[in-house]
Amino acid sequence: MYVPAVIYVLAASGVVQAFQLPDASILTRLHIPSFHNIKRSISDVLSPGASCPAVWSTISSELTPLFLTNGQCNNLARQAIRAAFHDCFNNGCDGSLILAEECSRPEDAGLADICSELPKIKSEHGVGMADLIQFAGAHAIRTCPLGPGMPAYVGRKDSSAPAPAGELPPVNGSGNSLLAMFKAKGFTATDLAALIGAHSVSTQFFVDPSKPGASQDSTPGTWDVTYYRQTLSGTAPFTFESDKNLAAQDEVGPVFKSFVANQLGWSNAFVPAMVKMATLGVPGGTSSLTDCTSALPGGTQKRDIKAAPMGARKN
């Protein structure tokens, strides 16, 4: 049974307040934790996400209206998702995308708005840039209708040293070369097939300037599997050559095809692949970071997809 976090907090508070504690000086002499510390310790155990700094909940509340327009995820959300990938793939998740001004590179074209917005949030709240980029990416994924319940972790180290240029996957790359690039980073064919599905909410402006804003499926404001079906059928408004190549690649292709009309299957593959992406270059991975998933808005969970009427699922 699901119990809201606030109930746990109140319960923990009530338990502590029921104790008849002596005066603080006696507690100190007896080496017994103070009332405040006992209360905090119990709350930390019983309250999910208690170790996540409260500032991330504040940031989350600020990001939601930035990422939604008329109930759909918008261009800033798309940029946040793309930025999360671009900061991590070529040299690990270190914030250098913004701190080293990599956003001005041709390969990062189209990220200007998010690269301008996130430094303002960092300055106001004093959080790390690497963490903020990944938190914003996870938040944007959850914000999109049907977006899966992405987790978020904080505690990465920032770096202002620029990552090597020219190491991001090219939009015209062959299926074999793209898979080799991802395998070199520790990803599988399944990971790649799932990650490329983020193009469900993407639009293009620079690959073909004659078609600015062209989307990679007909529902760019919704995180759904329409992308897989329309890429395979050739009916998408605009398809990158690399996506066509991956859909036909020997290892990636079968997985790519399996996500057609399979929202749950895609979500189950995408989330762990994106967590792997969000911890590239982080010693110890998620075990060395603080879980701040509790600060994110609610996303589509497995039980929600299973319970949704067939007509409500995006295929």
UniProtKB/TrEMBL annotation:
Heme b binds at residue 199. The active site is at residue 86. Binds 2 calcium ions per subunit. Ca(2+) 1 binds at residues 87, 92, 94, 96. One of its GO terms (molecular function) is peroxidase activity. Pfam families: peroxidase. One of its GO terms (biological process) is hydrogen peroxide catabolic process. Residues 75-309 form the Plant heme peroxidase family profile domain. Keywords: Calcium, Disulfide bond, Glycoprotein, Heme, Iron, Metal-binding, Oxidoreductase, Peroxidase. Ca(2+) 2 binds at residues 200, 217, 219, 224. Its EC number is 1.11.1.-. Belongs to the peroxidase family. Ligninase subfamily. This is Peroxidase. The lineage of its organism: Eukaryota, Fungi, Dikarya, Ascomycota, Pezizomycotina.
